[in-house]
Amino acid sequence: MTQSVGIARAHTNIALIKYWGKRDKELFLPMNSSLSLTLDAFYTDTKVVFDTAFTEDRFILNGLEQDEKEIRKISRFLDLFREYIGEDRFAVVESLNFVPTAAGLASSASAFAALALATATALNIDLSRQALSSFARRGSGSSTRSLFGGFVEWDMGTCSEDSLARPIDEADWDIGMLVIAVDKAKKKVASREGMDLTVATSPFYQAWVETAAQDLAAIKEAIAERDFEKLGRLTEHNGMKMHATTLSANPPFTYWSAASVRAQEAVRQVREESGLAAYMTMDAGPNVKVLCRASQMEELKRELSVLLPEFQLIESLPGQGASQLTEEEWQQSHSRFQKEVGYEG
């Protein structure tokens, strides 16, 4: 076979119990287990073509040919699959990112989850989703969770083979998330750099790891009991603790902007004055995500729009796990991207 093709879609996920810090940088093994909610509003579509005629790997993101640095990242990831089955063909990878890149909206999670599934499909590698998640992890830790829908746990494991994701709950109950997009620009401190500095220098870091494990056990209980208030409180507290470790790093840094703080205050105000169930979390970026009841999302959006009129508020319900796409669906995705987002080139 001279050519083989795989196309896949994966949605972003937002960690409710955060992953922050690696114990093995090469294998992307985390310091703590984590838990996330997959979202339907943001996703990546990726097509991978292997062909004997290709003389090198290429990577096209949002219609723009990527430079050697970005291609090397993709090539290293493809090598995991090529080495697994003894494949020697090069590949062209094309991705459409329906989520702002590097702005703390988990674009790398959906990107590498989609790439993992598309690559496995193209090479006809038969892996369970959990096993595939251990491959996806080597591209981006959080992508491990984006292979599944709903609430997903990434078990830190003891080695590369058992550090993988598993679905916890389909989140087919009264759950929603409102994203306050205060800044879609690329963040100044990359997640990997921020993690490394925090692990190496923050005197609070060990306490973070210990309490994250406690938070994970508690939030799994809340999900099993469908206790939204407990779920929300744990989500907000865990996220704030993660960001406290960056402020205690040396030198200190933060992913928050003045607009982030303003958005946080608006969420607290709406929660206190209206009684709406709204709990915030933030990843390595300035945007604020608000966990809420799906049945209250429209009302919450109206309340926050009054306080934050200049910011885009994006609604999302729980998303599904990664899926394969047909060539027709891929062409439709191209058309939709050009209309809704626009190519970079």
Automatic annotation (TrEMBL):
GO terms for biological process: isopentenyl diphosphate biosynthetic process, mevalonate pathway. Gene3D superfamilies: 3.30.230.10, GHMP kinase, C-terminal domain. GO terms for molecular function: ATP binding; diphosphomevalonate decarboxylase activity. Its EC number is 4.1.1.33. Residues 177-317 form the Mvd1 C-terminal domain. One of its GO terms (cellular component) is cytosol. It holds the Pfam family MDD_C. Keywords: ATP-binding, Lipid biosynthesis, Lipid metabolism, Lyase, Nucleotide-binding. Residues 10-165 form the Diphosphomevalonate decarboxylase-like N-terminal domain. It is an enzyme of class 4 (lyase). Belongs to the diphosphomevalonate decarboxylase family. NCBIfam families: mevDPdecarb. This is diphosphomevalonate decarboxylase. It comes from Streptococcus suivaginalis.
